[in-house]
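DYH5 protein: structure, please.
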Amino acid sequence: TITGETVELLEPYLDMEDYNLETAKKVCGNVAGLCSWTQAMAYFYGINKEVLPLKANLALQEGRLAAAQAELNNAQIQLDEKQMELDRVQAMYDTAMKEKQALLDDAEACRRKMNNATALIEGLGGEKLRWTASSKNFQNQIINLVGNVLLATGFLSYSGPFNQEYRNLLLQLWKKEMDNSKIPYSNDLNLTGMLVDNATVGEWNLQGLPNDDLSIQNGIIVTKASRYPLLIDPQGQGKIWIKNKEKNNGLQVNSSFNNSS
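Here you go.
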């Protein structure tokens, strides 16, 4: 409760040279403490006069700090809520992007399949006519199979000793007999194509067999007939072919008169 007026009233006493604790003790020891206390109060008033505004400002700033802290806490709570919401939305976004990418991948795979299917359909469309013709040809082959096999069997069994002209004559005679007996066969029958494939013929040619029809027919008879063939081979072409063909099978050659084998 000390005031400035009280301090002003005390100043004349406080300025006296003998107004101090040592002098007071000499005069009256009981009031020496009171003398020191009045000096301390006057000094406290001077200090407190400067501290009070600071205290007031401190209280004000503490209030502002508390308010700001409360706002910060509220803002932090909102931030946490928004962050949680953002995390949920981010997770939904990531899931949606994964689904989108999966759909894009599926769409691309479907597009490729469609393109492949379209190309296949277009390619197969061009094969339809050939397949239809092949189907009819297969039906004809089934019908004519007995006659064709009969001609091929006769060729292998009886045509070996004869030349090309007589072999053709035999086929014509057999066809007449089959016509009389109403045995169906293919008019355009190619016995060579029926009894051996082109790859085998090519391999025979590489082994030394000539590429003419008679030589190929002879090769068929040699490889397809059930009996051991006897080759009349003045030019040695058949001997060369057989040596090359069987050299990996342990062929043994026995030479006799006139260097024939």
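Notes: The mean pLDDT is 87.
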